[in-house]
């Protein structure tokens, strides 16, 4: 499942820089992601992996470089069409749902914005797809568990039928059993809908499991790009990646014990 | 259907749900039920507070009295008997006595409640939306929009309220409408500040980012997603300010710049009673007590609303 370099990449990033008040959070990152590929971004906290995702979504101040979607370079302002093609799931399901809106209203909002008719059906279908029945439809976020909230967030991202899904550590705020459920759900949705995933995680096991290729990041710059098999077989070249692997192995061993 | 609601029985198993269970249901089946359930929870939290209930009763009583003033008032509020009924002390005939024009003070108080409500409601309707709009726009937009709007707010805040209101009334001419305008103009800045602070808190939250990522326009985000979040603290603040509004209106009335004679405005009534405050104390005391009661009512109500509506204390 290597990237097919012959076709136009679904997402192409060239020399991307993001600067927050004189702090360079991203220092010239470039990458290409093929259609239907699942791409992971790995690194420790503050390595710029989430910033990269936010920059693609238009939530971070890009100071240099270009982002192209299916070969079309994006301007500084994203239009509605962009948000029908690219959606994002946030890390913290407790913070990403409006506290005063019911699930119904949360899912209806994107449909209203994009003027999609047939809202009733779509909402019910979206809830079914993420494994929540219509019994959840009129609940408020505080009446849901973390895993259920994240499912609602995924349903909200999918309801406009995007082709690229940006996932910002979608499971790191959930406990282990729920994590697996949500990851399986995402995996299934990607297969069913032929989606392109860009997934940020600090958990190498999750990334190896979910992604075809990945990029290791440090201090806002690329360390190296690997395929999942390469990572699984420890065929890494950079010291930083070796250290990262060693750190996560300590974690896996304790987990398996 | 991975996780069931914890204790509530499924509605189908028990078709005869009591109204309370229906309202508190963990899995509402319609939008209305969800909304009503939420309102019911807020009401229960509010009703737990005895003092807040007293405040609510005072305000409801004020509204009722204002509506049915024609039925309740035993005498005319504007026409008195100068020959026989001047400055009579409280008696069975005139419960709260009469003033220097021979008018029944109770009747004047009852009709005066209309003016009080008129002022309070109009000021709230004018000032709260202005403050809300300026605060949320400035908080969400940031940058130079924020700087300009907040400096304007600062300028208004820098004036002593009553003095600015006095200047405005002096410019516009005395009268109750102008008093309302003057008070409204001077009372929006704190609301703008509150709304801005609340907006700043939520503008970078993930759920607002999520709405932006849906492609929502800034106007939509401010109107539909940010404003509702500012509403509860604003309602609380406006309710707590009602007492101040009443006092400012009374102050303007007292200075002769608010309601003009013979309107039975409470502040103006105190002003006219001032001359005989030592010998005929009831002329000034009755409206004074009325102002005190209504102000107290609004303050108690505001405190209760703060406990009931504040999302931080309710864990929502």
From TrEMBL, chain A:
<comment type="subunit">
    <text>The complex is composed of two ATP-binding proteins (GsiA), two transmembrane proteins (GsiC and GsiD) and a solute-binding protein (GsiB).</text>
</comment>
<keyword id="KW-0547">Nucleotide-binding</keyword>
<dbReference type="GO" id="GO:0016887">
    <property type="term" value="F:ATP hydrolysis activity"/>
</dbReference>
<dbReference type="GO" id="GO:0005524">
    <property type="term" value="F:ATP binding"/>
</dbReference>
<feature type="domain" description="ABC transporter">
    <location>
        <begin position="11"/>
        <end position="244"/>
    </location>
</feature>
<protein>
    <recommendedName>
        <fullName>Glutathione import ATP-binding protein GsiA</fullName>
        <ecNumber>7.4.2.10</ecNumber>
    </recommendedName>
</protein>
<dbReference type="InterPro" id="IPR027417">
    <property type="entry name" value="P-loop_NTPase"/>
</dbReference>
<dbReference type="InterPro" id="IPR003439">
    <property type="entry name" value="ABC_transporter-like_ATP-bd"/>
</dbReference>
<keyword id="KW-0472">Membrane</keyword>
<keyword id="KW-1003">Cell membrane</keyword>
<comment type="function">
    <text>Part of the ABC transporter complex GsiABCD involved in glutathione import. Responsible for energy coupling to the transport system.</text>
</comment>
<dbReference type="GO" id="GO:0055085">
    <property type="term" value="P:transmembrane transport"/>
</dbReference>
<keyword id="KW-0997">Cell inner membrane</keyword>
<keyword id="KW-1278">Translocase</keyword>
<keyword id="KW-0813">Transport</keyword>
<comment type="similarity">
    <text>Belongs to the ABC transporter superfamily. Glutathione importer (TC 3.A.1.5.11) family.</text>
</comment>
<dbReference type="GO" id="GO:0005886">
    <property type="term" value="C:plasma membrane"/>
</dbReference>
<dbReference type="InterPro" id="IPR017871">
    <property type="entry name" value="ABC_transporter-like_CS"/>
</dbReference>
<dbReference type="Pfam" id="PF00005">
    <property type="entry name" value="ABC_tran"/>
</dbReference>
<keyword id="KW-0067">ATP-binding</keyword>
<dbReference type="InterPro" id="IPR003593">
    <property type="entry name" value="AAA+_ATPase"/>
</dbReference>
<dbReference type="InterPro" id="IPR050319">
    <property type="entry name" value="ABC_transp_ATP-bind"/>
</dbReference>
TrEMBL record, chain B:
<dbReference type="GO" id="GO:0055085">
    <property type="term" value="P:transmembrane transport"/>
</dbReference>
<keyword id="KW-0472">Membrane</keyword>
<keyword id="KW-0571">Peptide transport</keyword>
<dbReference type="Pfam" id="PF00528">
    <property type="entry name" value="BPD_transp_1"/>
</dbReference>
<dbReference type="GO" id="GO:0015031">
    <property type="term" value="P:protein transport"/>
</dbReference>
<feature type="transmembrane region" description="Helical">
    <location>
        <begin position="162"/>
        <end position="187"/>
    </location>
</feature>
<dbReference type="InterPro" id="IPR050366">
    <property type="entry name" value="BP-dependent_transpt_permease"/>
</dbReference>
<comment type="similarity">
    <text>Belongs to the binding-protein-dependent transport system permease family. OppBC subfamily.</text>
</comment>
<keyword id="KW-0653">Protein transport</keyword>
<feature type="transmembrane region" description="Helical">
    <location>
        <begin position="280"/>
        <end position="302"/>
    </location>
</feature>
<keyword id="KW-1133">Transmembrane helix</keyword>
<keyword id="KW-1003">Cell membrane</keyword>
<feature type="transmembrane region" description="Helical">
    <location>
        <begin position="51"/>
        <end position="73"/>
    </location>
</feature>
<dbReference type="GO" id="GO:0005886">
    <property type="term" value="C:plasma membrane"/>
</dbReference>
<dbReference type="GO" id="GO:0015833">
    <property type="term" value="P:peptide transport"/>
</dbReference>
<protein>
    <submittedName>
        <fullName>Cytochrome c550</fullName>
    </submittedName>
</protein>
<feature type="transmembrane region" description="Helical">
    <location>
        <begin position="235"/>
        <end position="260"/>
    </location>
</feature>
<feature type="transmembrane region" description="Helical">
    <location>
        <begin position="115"/>
        <end position="141"/>
    </location>
</feature>
<keyword id="KW-0813">Transport</keyword>
<dbReference type="InterPro" id="IPR053385">
    <property type="entry name" value="ABC_transport_permease"/>
</dbReference>
<dbReference type="InterPro" id="IPR025966">
    <property type="entry name" value="OppC_N"/>
</dbReference>
<dbReference type="Pfam" id="PF12911">
    <property type="entry name" value="OppC_N"/>
</dbReference>
């Amino acid at each position: 499942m290597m990237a097919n370099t012959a076709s136009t990449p679904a997402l192409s990033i060239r020399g991307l820089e993001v600067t927050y008040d004189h702090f360079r959070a991203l220092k010239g990152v470039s990458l290409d992601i093929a259609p239907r590929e699942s791409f992971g971004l790995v690194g420790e906290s503050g390595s710029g992996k989430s910033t990269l995702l936010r920059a693609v979504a238009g939530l971070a101040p890009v100071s240099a470089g270009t982002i192209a979607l299916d070969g079309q370079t994006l301007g500084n302002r994203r239009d509605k069409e962009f948000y029908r093609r690219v959606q994002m799931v946030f890390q913290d399901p407790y913070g990403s749902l409006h506290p005063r809106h019911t699930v119904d209203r949360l899912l209806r909002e994107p449909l209203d914005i994009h003027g999609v008719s047939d809202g009733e059906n779509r909402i019910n279908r979206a809830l079914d797809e993420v494994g929540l029945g219509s019994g959840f439809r009129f609940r408020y976020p505080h009446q849901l568990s973390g895993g259920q909230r994240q499912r609602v967030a995924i349903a909200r991202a999918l309801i406009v039928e995007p082709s690229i899904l940006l996932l910002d550590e979608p499971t790191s705020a959930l406990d282990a059993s729920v994590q697996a459920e949500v990851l399986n759900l995402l995996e299934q949705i990607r297969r069913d809908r032929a989606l392109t995933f860009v997934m940020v995680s600090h958990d190498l096991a999750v990334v190896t499991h979910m992604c075809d290729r990945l990029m290791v990041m440090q201090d806002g710059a690329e360390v190296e790009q690997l395929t999942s098999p390469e990572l699984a077989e420890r065929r890494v070249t950079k010291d930083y990646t070796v250290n990262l692997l060693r750190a996560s192995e300590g974690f896996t061993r304790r987990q398996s014990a | 259907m991975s996780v069931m609601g914890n204790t509530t029985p499924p509605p189908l198993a028990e078709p005869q749900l009591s109204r309370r269970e229906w309202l508190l249901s963990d899995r509402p089946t319609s939008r209305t039920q969800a909304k009503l359930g939420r309102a019911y929870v807020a009401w229960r939290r509010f009703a737990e507070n005895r003092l807040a209930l007293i405040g609510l009763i005072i305000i409801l009583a004020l509204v009722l009295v204002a509506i049915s003033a024609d039925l309740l008032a035993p005498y005319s509020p504007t026409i008195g008997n100068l020959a026989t009924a001047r400055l009579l002390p409280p008696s069975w005939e005139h419960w709260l006595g009469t003033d220097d024009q021979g008018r029944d003070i109770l009747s004047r108080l009852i009709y005066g409640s209309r003016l009080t409500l008129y002022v309070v409601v109009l000021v709230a309707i004018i000032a709260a939306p202005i403050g809300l709009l300026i605060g949320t726009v400035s908080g969400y937009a940031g940058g130079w929009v924020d700087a300009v709007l907040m400096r304007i707010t600062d300028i208004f805040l820098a004036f002593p309220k009553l003095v600015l209101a006095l200047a405005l009334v002096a410019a516009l001419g005395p009268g109750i409408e102008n008093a309302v305008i003057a008070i409204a103009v001077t009372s929006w800045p704190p609301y703008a500040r509150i709304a801005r602070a609340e907006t700043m808190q939520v503008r970078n939250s993930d759920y607002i980012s999520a709405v932006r990522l849906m492609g929502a326009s800034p106007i939509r985000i401010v109107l539909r997603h940010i404003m509702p979040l500012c509403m509860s603290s604003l309602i609380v603040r406006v309710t707590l300010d009602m007492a101040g509004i009443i006092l400012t209106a009374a102050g303007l009335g007292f200075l002769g710049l608010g309601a003009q004679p013979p309107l039975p405005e409470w502040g103006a009534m105190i002003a006219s009673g001032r001359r005989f405050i030592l010998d005929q104390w009831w002329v000034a005391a009755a409206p004074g007590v009325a102002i005190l009661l209504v102000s107290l009512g609004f303050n108690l109500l505001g405190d209760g609303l703060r406990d009931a509506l504040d999302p931080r204390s309710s864990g929502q």
